[in-house]
Design brief:
Shape: elongated
Strand order of the largest sheet: 5-7-6
Number of strands: 7
Number of helices: 6
């Protein structure tokens, strides 16, 4: 059956299909299979044959997913954050996600109504996430600097709406967490960050676990 050959959670994780399981190998499922096949063949056919090439690759990927152990960042309001990346890029270790949620909640206590913007983390299977060199192990997260107006929009350290004060508070909250290893960010007036090319518009937070 379609359920036996192509599990919905495998397609969600590996093809970005985000399908709901309905027991039917219909157009959406076939399209997701074809999209997945385009990653490694110029002739996608939307078919999954037992012991065939697509089946083998799906199983290899699934094993990597299970070994990686990443989980999806909770997608709910009220936690003091919102995500600005696609959902397939928002996987991390349980400890990393706990650290993120803890920091965002503490920030919300200081600045009610100002949500932290969380971007790329990792794929569920730890695959390479271009253009990043890291973001493979579930222990990295990109965070937007904090805006002075609290709007859910991008901001750089050169923009009028960039709040150094609030961003410094956010950095300090991260540095309080034992799990945080380093923070890359290009505002050298904030203590505890390291300059890194192309980090004017986000903080790159690396975790230990």
């Amino acid at each position: 059956t379609a359920r036996e050959l192509v599990r919905g959670d495998v397609l969600d994780a590996l093809a970005g299909a985000l399908l709901k399981e309905d027991g039917d190998c219909g157009r959406a499922t076939i399209s997701a299979i074809s999209d997945y096949q385009r990653n490694w063949t110029g002739r996608p056919d939307g078919l999954v044959h037992p012991s065939g090439r697509t089946w083998t690759k799906l199983n290899e990927k699934l094993l990597r997913v299970l070994r990686q152990g990443n989980i999806l960042l909770p997608q709910m309001s009220g936690n003091g954050y919102y995500s600005y990346s696609t959902i397939v890029c928002l996987y991390g270790t349980a400890t990393t996600e706990k650290t993120l949620v803890t920091v965002c909640r503490k920030f919300a206590e200081k600045y009610p109504g100002v949500d932290i913007a969380i971007g790329d983390m990792s794929f569920v299977d730890g695959a390479t996430m271009k253009p990043h060199a890291t973001h493979k192990n579930g222990r990295n997260a990109d965070i937007r600097p904090v805006r002075a107006d609290g709007k859910m929009l991008p901001v750089t350290i050169f923009d009028a709406q960039y709040s150094r004060e609030r961003t410094a508070v956010l950095v300090a909250l991260f540095r309080e967490q034992r799990n945080v290893r380093s923070i890359l960010f290009n505002d050298n007036q904030i203590e505890g960050v390291t300059w890194w090319k192309n980090h004017d518009n986000h903080l790159h937070v690396s975790m230990n676990e």
